[in-house]
Amino acid sequence: MAYCVQADITARTPADVIEQLTDDDVSGSINATNLNAAIADADAEIDSYLRGNYDVPLDSPVDGLIKRLSVDLTVYFLYQRRLDLDMPESVENRYNRALEILIEIQEGERSIAIDSGISSSQSFKTNKETSDKLFSSDVWDTYN
């Protein structure tokens, strides 16, 4: 599942800009294939920072911060694919800030809301096995 969709992107970036960045055939509309490829790149970047601390990809609904980061990274990757266009400073700043936030999440300085409320780094492991039990199931059943 993608962390953002076209509507999220056009809510933060004008649709005509997204059209210009994706419409290689000059059809006059946003090319969904090119847009989805940029979204996939952005989500892979996000997952690379979250892996190890969270189970990725994240489940739906996606944290609002992650959605915003996905939008910022997607727009950056769309500009990157159009070498004939200059990257606006604001897009580059949003990209750099998104990476800073991802590093903060990775290092535990920020947290994100996930559906289960528990990240994999908050779980615990044990070296105990079923054979380590002091009492068998038969013993416990006598107390029922």
Summarize the structure.
By secondary structure, the protein is mainly α. The protein has helices at residues 6-12, 15-22, 32-50, 64-81, 89-106, 137-141. It has one domain (6-141).
List keywords for this structure.
6 helices; elongated; mainly alpha; 144 residues; 0% strand
Plain-language structure description:
The chain is built from six helices and no strands. The protein has one domain (6-141). Helix 4 crosses helix 5. It has 144 residues and is mainly alpha-helical. The longest helix has 19 residues, at 32-50. The radius of gyration is 22 Å and the shape is elongated.
Order of helices and strands: HHHHHH
* Count of discrete alpha- or pi-helical segments spanning 4 or more residues: 6
What is the total number of structural domains? 1
Q: What fraction strand?
A: under 5%
The helix-and-strand class reads mainly alpha
Which descriptor suits the 3D outline?
A: elongated
Mean pLDDT: 87
Residue windows where pLDDT falls under 50 for at least 5 positions: 116-120
Most strands sheet? none
Total beta strands: 0
- Radius of gyration of CA atoms, rounded to a whole number: 22 Å
Itemize the secondary structure elements and their pairings.
Elements: H1 6-12, H2 15-22, H3 32-50, H4 64-81, H5 89-106, H6 137-141
